[in-house]
Amino acid sequence: MHLSRTPALVAVAAALVVLPAAASGASGPDAPGQAKDGHYSFAVIGDVPYGDAQVAAFPRWVDQINATPNLSFTIHVGDIKNGSSTCTNEYFGMIRRQFDRFTMPLVYTPGDNEWTDCHRANNGTYDPLERLAAIRSTFFSRPGHTLGDDMTVASQSAAGVPENVSFRRQGVDLATLHVVGSNDGLLPWPELGHTAPTPEQVGDETTRLNSAVAQVRSAFADVRQCHDRAVALFLQADMFDPTYDVTWANNSAFQPLVRELVAQSNAFDGEVYLFNGDSHIYNSDHPLAAGSKWLDFYGVGGSADNLTRVTVDGSNNNKDFLVVTVNRPGAEHVLSWKRIPYAS
Questions:
Q1: Cα-to-chain-centroid distance, residue 13
Q2: 200 vs 161: CA distance, rounded Å
Q3: 161: closest CA among 175, 143, 146, 145?
Q4: What residues does 233 pair with on adjacent strands?
């Protein structure tokens, strides 16, 4: 959920099938890790369900994703509620029951609406860190295991961040990063009497961001060791939001992660994909390519022309989900995707 940003005009691509710009040097079909078929699909959703109507529709949407042929797993990139509803245990439990209805593994990374922004009066004036603990106990009670159908994943539970998970599937290394809007949770909590981030707030953000950077390094180390074709990362925050005039004060916390993404992507000759929610409008671009304004914004040297970012539809614009296909070795690109409308 965005805070303290000024809307600006934006033109958003709406093509149903999207292919990223070519990346150089993708591994060949006989490289290690490519012996299997290398062709499967998964779903990506985010910023859902938002409000009573979507809460009522969400079971049908889960059913539709379950009924979609050939999906290996689903990833939810955060925000399981809107920014103006209460952050109750009962709501969290209801969402957990829906997540458990997925007949495939479900990987979930939290968004800011379900904990960071819960200090707001219309959210119940909760202590956000207490709500984060509730999110972890509700959705990550079995570190190293997915929701929905059980799948074993690597977890950063030893670092206190069990929601950061990673796994490898037929030449693609996938990882979630608990990085959220509201400047990664550093915007003040005035309803609790704070006009600046508290020490506890700063400590939590430091732990989460350091863990996210470590997760990125680990994913790229794995892809190189296994001679895999691509890295795919998933998080809630839109660090390159084209729909708003973003300010440094609202996005400064993301700088270390952006720098790491550039450094690791630049040193990798395969393809890199970054999936996020947060800004609610489908978009596909190359925010860290040479000449991008975001390199100057974050003060980053170098560029990452091989990084493709994809934002999923969400909030009131949540009319579809994304089906991502991992193409067989030898295809022009490792990933391609299509927006699938929810049935009415």
A1: 20
A2: 15
A3: 143
A4: 175, 274
**Which residue has tokens 């539970």?**
157
CB contact at 8 A, 255 and 183: no
Cα distances from 271 to residues 19, 195, 290, in angstroms, run 12, 42, 16
Q: What is the pTM of this model?
A: 0.90
Helix axes 128-139, 199-225, angle to 10 degrees: 40
pLDDT digits (tens, 9 = 90+) for 39-66: 899 999 999 999 999 999 999 999 999 9
Q: Hunting for tokens 């180390």 — which residue is that?
A: 221
Question: Can you identify the CATH homologous superfamily of domain 17-341?
Answer: Metallo-dependent phosphatases (3.60.21.10)
Interhelix angle for 128-139 vs 89-99, to 10°?
Answer: 30
- Residue in the structure block whose two tokens are 């660090």: 239
**Neighbouring C-beta atoms of residue 111, cutoff 10 Å:** 32
216's tokens: 């990125």
| Per-residue pLDDT tens over the stretch 222-269 | 999 999 999 999 999 999 999 888 899 889 999 999 999 999 999 999
Q: Say what angle helices 89-99 and 51-67 make with each other, to 10 degrees.
A: 20
